[in-house]
Each structure stands twice: as C-alpha cells, then as structure tokens.
Amino acid sequence: MKHSIADGSQIYWDGAHYDAFNVPYQDDMKFYLAEAKKARGPVLELACGTGRLTIPLAAAGVDVTGLDLAGPMLARARAKAAAAGVKPRFVKGDARSFSLGRFKLIFIAFNSMQHLAAREDIEGLFSSVARNLAPGGRFILDVFNPDPRCLVRDPDEELPVAYYDAPSGGGKVLVNERYSYDRAAQVSRLTWTYRSEKTGRSEKKRLNLRCFFPEELLALAHYNGFDLLARYGDFRRRPFGPDSPKQVLVCRPRVQ
Length: 256
Ligand SMILES: C[S@@+](CC[C@H](N)C(=O)[O-])C[C@H]1O[C@@H](n2cnc3c(N)ncnc32)[C@H](O)[C@@H]1O
Known about the structure:
There is one protein chain. The chain is of the alpha/beta class. It folds into 2 domains: 15-145 and 212-253, Vaccinia Virus protein VP39 (Rossmann fold, 3-Layer(aba) Sandwich), CATH 3.40.50.150; 148-210. It has 7 helices and 11 strands. The strands form 2 sheets. The chain has a 7-stranded mixed sheet with strand order 3-2-1-4-5-11-10, sandwiched between helices. A 4-stranded antiparallel sheet has the order 6-7-8-9, with no helix packed on it. Bound molecules: S-adenosylmethionine. S-adenosylmethionine binds next to loops.
C-alpha cells in the first residue's frame, strides 16, 4: 500500500522497512537525551516515526509523548515500546496543528521539518509549538544544511543509498536514488527505487524534502515569534558554519 503524507512523500508505508533502512543512524541520540533530561518535565517529539528517539527517552525515565501523521509508523512505534516495556504516549496527529498540553521541551528531529514545505505549514508548526509549551519551555529542530553540490545533481543519475535486510526474512533490499532539485519550490524531489533481491520486484517511492537555507531558517524562527538560544552545526554542539552538515536550532517563544 502506498502511504503519502501531506507533502506527497511515500516512504513511510511500513515502519519495519523504515527501521531496517535507518538502523545505523544514532548521531542525534545523546544530544536529544541530554536536552530531554535538562527539560525536567514533559517532552513532546513531533514526527516521532517509529519511536527511534521516543522509546529510548522513555526508557531513560523521560515523560515523553510522540506525535506522527503516519499510522504505519505509529503502529511500529507502539509495538516496539511494548516490547521494550515502556509506555510513551503515541498520538496520531499533524505537527502543523496540534493541542496536546504544556511541554517543557518540544522537538522535531531527523530532518522531519523538511516535510513542511509551504509558509502556512511552517506557521502552523511554530504557532502550535508556542501554544503547547509550558513557561520556560524550549523548541529544538534539526534540518540539513543544504549542500549546493547536491542541489545540482543530474536528475537522471541513479545512486545507491541503502542495502538492508527486509523485515521477516524478506532478503536483501537495494535502494537506488534519483534526485532532482526544484529551484522554485526549494524542494528536493527524490525517487527511491526499492529492489527486493528475493523476488526481483522493484517499487518506486517519492520523498520530498524542503530545503531551508541558513539565514532563511533563522528568519522563519524569528518572524514566527521565537528567540534563538543556540545554533549548532552538528549534534556534538559544534558552532554552525559553512561546512556544517546540519542546522540544529534551540529556541523559545519570545512571549510566553
Ligand atoms: C524522517 S522521519 C523521522 C522519524 C523519527 N523522528 C526518527 O527520528 O526516526 C519523518 C517522520 O515525519 C512524519 N511526518 C511528516 N509530516 C508530518 C506532519 N505534518 N505531522 C506529523 N508527522 C509528520 C512522517 O510520518 C515520518 O514518520
């Protein structure tokens, strides 16, 4: 079954495949765990997916809620949490419009904000975050620092991006990527072709990622009523600079 989220991305159709694909990614874990503990209160992860971060946070004693739009991702998150013996709250909802309470920390990790392409989407995100933060609460987001070398990639070029073990003994899956940058919308339009070695079948899925350029991202936070507390270029808290792979922003609403 194809599963599209609001921006047309289709890669969240199956949480088990998502996890098998992303298994090695751990770079941000220590950072978000430290921030969640520092918050000393309820934490909300937006676009929590299969609970890659939510579940370890809950296991570390953090009072954490995860919100996501994709049912298959949440189903997988709930099953993994039960297997781990932890009980984070998982909620089906939209990061652009939610009302879940008052949190000391809200974060949106692993480039998930790049699924919000339109100005109205971003406005919805920031206003919902402001409404759901307790006094003194913080908002953290991380997105890529767009690399101009990627943006000019030949759209006909196909490159391998993953080779993983399909869930339930389904054999190896090779994922090849085509990448086309839409300069008008500032959206990277990717097509991932999943090829099962076992069955020989291929399936194409779309992934759209809005690019946020550094000064633009600061302006969006500012004009949506947030002050910047810290800006890092990676999860080791190195200062943001031209060669930084990531933009990690820690901010809080100007008026609380
Ligand atoms: C790259 S995954 C990240 C998942 C998880 N945070 C992680 O670190 O593994 C992006 C997630 O964003 C979710 N998503 C996309 N648009 C959303 C929206 N408007 N509201 C809530 N979740 C959304 C997708 O369903 C997907 O689970």
